[in-house]
Design a protein that fits this description.
The complex is a heterotrimer of chains A (about 625), B (about 160) and C (about 575). Chain A has 24 helices and 20 strands. By secondary structure, chain A is of the alpha/beta class. In chain A, the strands form 6 sheets. Chain A has a 5-stranded mixed beta sheet. In chain A, strands 13-12-16-14-15 form a 5-stranded mixed beta sheet, with helices on both faces. The N and C termini of chain A lie far apart (about 70 Å). The model of chain C has no long low-confidence stretch (mean pLDDT about 95). Chain C folds into 3 domains: about 70 residues, Ubiquitin-like (UB roll); about 80 residues, 2-Layer Sandwich (Alpha-Beta Plaits); about 350 residues, Rossmann fold. In chain C, the strands form 6 sheets. In chain C, strands 2-1-5-3-4 form a 5-stranded mixed beta sheet, covered by helices on one side. Chain C has a 4-stranded parallel beta sheet with strand order 11-10-13-16, with helices on both faces. In chain C, strands 12-19-18-17 form a 4-stranded mixed beta sheet, sandwiched between helices. Chain C is an alpha/beta fold. Chain C is about 35% helix and about 15% strand. Classes of the chains: A alpha/beta (about 625), B alpha+beta (about 160), C alpha/beta (about 575). At the A-B interface, helix 2, strand 12, strand 16 and helix 17 of A face helix 2, helix 4, helix 5 and strand 4 of B.
Amino acid sequence: MSITCKEELKVHQDKVNQTIQAYGCRILVCCGTGCIASGAQKIYDEMVKLCSGMDNVKVEMQKDLPHLGELGVVKTGCQGLCELGPLMRVEPYDYQYVKVQLSDCKEIVDSTVKEGKPVERLFYKTKEGELCSHPDDIPFIGKQTRIVLENCGKIDAESIDEYIGVGGYSALAKALLDMTPEEVIDEVDKSGLRGRGGAGFPAGKKWKQVARQPEKLRYVVCNGDEGDPGAFMDGSVMEGDPYKMIEGMTIAAYAVGAQEGYIYVRAEYPLSVKRLKMAMAQAEEYGLLGDNILNTGFNFHLHINRGAGAFVCGEGSALTASIEGNRGMPRVKPPRTVEKGLWEKPTVLNNVETYANVPKIILSGAEWFRTIGTEGSPGTKTFSLTGAIENTGLVEVPMGTKLREIIYDIGGGLKSGAAFKGVQIGGPSGGCLVEEHLDAVLDFDSVKKFDAIMGSGGLVVMDENTCMVEVARFFMSFTQRESCGKCVPCREGTKRMLEILEKIVAGKGEMEDLDRLEELATMVKSMALCGLGKSAPLPVISTLKRFRDEYEEHIVQKKCRAKVCTALRQFHINAEFCKGCGKCAKNCPAGAIFGKAKHPYVINNDLCIKCGACKDNCNFDAIYVEA
Amino acid sequence: MLDQSYYNKADEIIEGYGRKAASLIPIMQDIQAEYRYLPGELLTYVAKQIGVKEAKAFSVATFYENFSFEPKGKFIIKVCDGTACHVRKSMPVKEALMKELGLTHKQHTTDDMMFTVETVSCLGACGLAPTLTVNDEVHPKMTPEKAIDLLSELRGEKV
Amino acid sequence: MGYMTIDGRKVEFTDEKNVLSVIRKAGINIPTLCYHSELSTFGACRLCTVEDNRGKTFASCSEEPRDGMVIYTNTGKLKKYRKMIVELLLAAHCRDCTTCVESGVTCVLQSLALRMGIQEVRFENTREIRPLDMTSPSIVRDPNKCILCGNCVRACEELQGIGALGFAYRGTEAMVMPEFDKKINETLCVNCGQCRVFCPTGAISIRTNIDEVWDALADPNVRVVAQIAPAVRVAVGDNYGVPKGRSVMGKIVNALHRMGFDEVYDTTFSADLTIMEETAEFLDRVQNGGKLPLLTSCCPAWVKFVTDQFQDFVPNISTCRSPQGMLSAVIKEHFRDPANNPDGRKTVVVSFMPCTAKKMEAERPNSYTKGEKDTDIVITTTELIRMIDNNGYDFGMLEPEACDTPFGLGSGGGVIFGVTGGVTEAVLRRLSPDHTKASMESIAESGVRGMDGIKEFSVPYNGIDVKICVVNGLANARAVMDKVRAGEAEYHLIEVMACRRGCIMGGGQPAGAGDRTKAARAQGLYNADNTTIIKKSDENPLVIDLYNGMLKDKAHELLHVEGY
């Protein structure tokens, strides 16, 4: 089947919606990476089995909707609350179930599907004990503004029909049939959309520069190599609503006159690759991708490249080098990617989230887009909220939302009520924001002022049990391991910074080390070749600035207040609780525990190797750690 | 010497991507997926077939973490050490696995070729930290104890 | 075109391709380790980073000059950062400087450390010590001294199209090595030594044979005979304050005599022999339907390249030995005659070459005559300088001396062998019926001269249009050979010198030659030609004598190889 004009698209949209409405009940099982890990596939299979043969939940193949095999029971992308998976929504009641187990399926079918009654025990319960029956009642979801993720969790992630049903591809139709390429670029430019991959370069400006190049062979490339540990927004978009991003790329290709496009997906996202491939095949079948799109004569062919395990490939020139079959080493710029990118041709390189914003901008206009977010950074931003937080998961909020709202209103505050210490934004290339930044407006420009970067949007919340020196060490070990090794500042500088940090957490630091660390960090920041190298020292710079006292404690007092740094821990036996059983002494590999049976034992901290075996083996909780 | 079947398989994969330099990475990925490692002889063979210099092919293969010239175990366990997993204590999980399997920082695969334990930067399932994957299947909310249980479960599979 | 402000001074720029070149033109020798105008811009060392008037830093090697640019090259911040970078490199570098062959003038890293006043390295070298690769007769690789600038990798790939070396692994584990850490002689390396020319440290150095020469000279039972290649004479002076490119042949001869060489000959002489033989072979192939195009055989790196990678063209390679091979064979034969060797001493031939590949050529099985190795020891220009220094000669005080007879004279055609196109030009002179100024000039202007990597032209000879291609740089040679193989190009003669600009820029020449030096070396050889009365190889009286004497029945045996 091929869709060749707006009318046909509309007809198809109506047909899909009629079909969907014809069902008495629709079950949406979250099949994002997180929920699948929690067993969502089995839940899905079980629901299909239980619903088969039921009148109001159609599971059989639809003749003219070839991809809607299970229109009544569908797999969606991330519904947001990853930690409470497997998640399930049931329509038309708009019930949101959490932590669904196999054993719950029968009850869901019996009460909700057959009788429309909720299974209340599967509802989300707030801290205050309030039950939330609908997704939007859950503060985590209700307080978000979803543009990029609007369909995520609501439509079948494997069905282009459902995407068309919610208005998908009308933006492409509008762009191709009603607008010139220049008008498309203009609209994107006016919207102020900034690249969501890190630095926030205006997308419209980038497209304009590519369109201006004398070379006519151009490429559109999507950076789906979301490598920041602790970030999974792009992965969620690719697996939850691959169509939106593909539509955005197709519009970009039309705007800049490209006929070939590449999506570079990181190796750890097999589900994204699978869903993208399905989406591409469906789009091609519908004439929405490939040759003669919407019968306009415009051709756009899309390819998928899988990453092979190199964080640095998230850097533009390293990414194109990797697509070309080379080592993913960033090259010097200029020439910039817009002039000489993939195969030395002008290239638009944006990330997943950026492209996913495009269809809505084309449909609703730049003016509308600018009503969301801040003056300098319009629109929304997706974050993956993780770490020591009550609700981890995928979050989309307007640019400019305060950190406090994200952490406390949406994220539900810190886990088990611990005290907030900081939040790492922008992954290993980012920095650490603290208490004083909680009420600052969060957008591309403000974050930079705080020695951090927006990055792709990882937010890792840290509480009082997190050692900031250890965190700096952790990020440095990551960037050091992932350094491509090309430029001297990054290759040698990160290595030496890591050595110093390792020395400090091992309790062997000296005060001169802090000067040396600072010296190295500022040098690498100014001198490294690529953006990743330049930002590699940011975690050190920001923690040194904001948690210098912790560094000094490690060095001078040999103390880790978070009790994280093993070498600085001191194990003690609480004489009050100790029964003198001697189990600790028996398990001590260093022979550091002494005592007499039935009398409290003592640990000799000069001999102790801080392994913690005594604590693990004590039946009376008599052993405690002192920083 | 590798069995002829390896070369036949390589030919098949090469045909799928075309004899061009840009095919190098996807071809190596497919070979790696097929044999759970990248036999050096095949790298040389592929380089010749697609017109890439050997030193270049080797330099590309060694750049990316996913390629290994050493055969890997039947179960490849990747412990996520992304930020979210790290702050939720992923390393004790890995250490427990390594201890149980008698692996060291130098040896990643058990002698019986059953298990390979590796670290991975982020699996994108941060909400369920700490996580690990066994042959790409994600296991959420791990603890050292759960990891050991998982091993015996996997060991059961082999019988 | 435009002006930029560098450190407060206005500087004009014209066609400089980057800010770095403008800075250097302005007389500021901004440090670099990975930048070379002949290689692609790598941007890895970051030492050439400058600051603009907004405090933004960028590497000057990769930025195009723009009118109105304001930059600072030596701010306090930059000085500190650069020093730190060099310190970090030193920390990961084997610092056995006192015993390193590149210590002194040629180690760029060392000179930068000195310039920047680095007196302490605060970081420990934690790199694993790796073994040296001594498998090549031409070069030695010491990975412990490698600073990963990638110059060798790019030179091998971009200039020579060989790609024997690559980066392996990444981050601090990154290393330069052949595939699977093979030894260099197990690869397609052609021994050209360009990697060593571009190496800023002692990570790749010339495999030296100096001690063997001293041993031979010290042995009373040995007659030590030297031959000196054309390109050597225009490069040795580099080290002694002689104007760049000036021939110091007479001084070299003096130095060698002082060292105790019994005879000192000129390879220019056997260049003439090569022309005699190669022209004859060429005419024979053209007239009798032999394999064409004829590929020149003077350059051993090129010959290895063909035998390794264009095996189907091996029959096209001229069977002529190289000038080194011819002269050594002739010398050995000369002293086999008891009349020339009354005391019955053993003869050892030491050839002084601009080339590291000649060391490999001397080892080739077809470099033997009558079961005896033709050339016993090959010494590069760089080693020759070291030998002169070793003996403490004051180069300025060495009076020029003439080479010895009977092999001490070459024609102008022979001397220009050292520059790309020289062999072809000499062949054309040989084919010329006369040696008038007009004839010589018209040959020089036929298209044979110039530094382009690939020159194509044709000259009429006996009713045929002789199509010639003159190539320097093996990457260019590959391009030409691919075309020839595909039938897209047809030539009668292809001259290839593996090194860009020919032997004057050979892998054994003193490193660090800038653009001016390169041009001066070529000019130096053309000047030597200009001051030689005999222009044509066939008019060299010593050559004529030899053909009438020793070579009467031995020309083929002594001057050709039996195959490759």
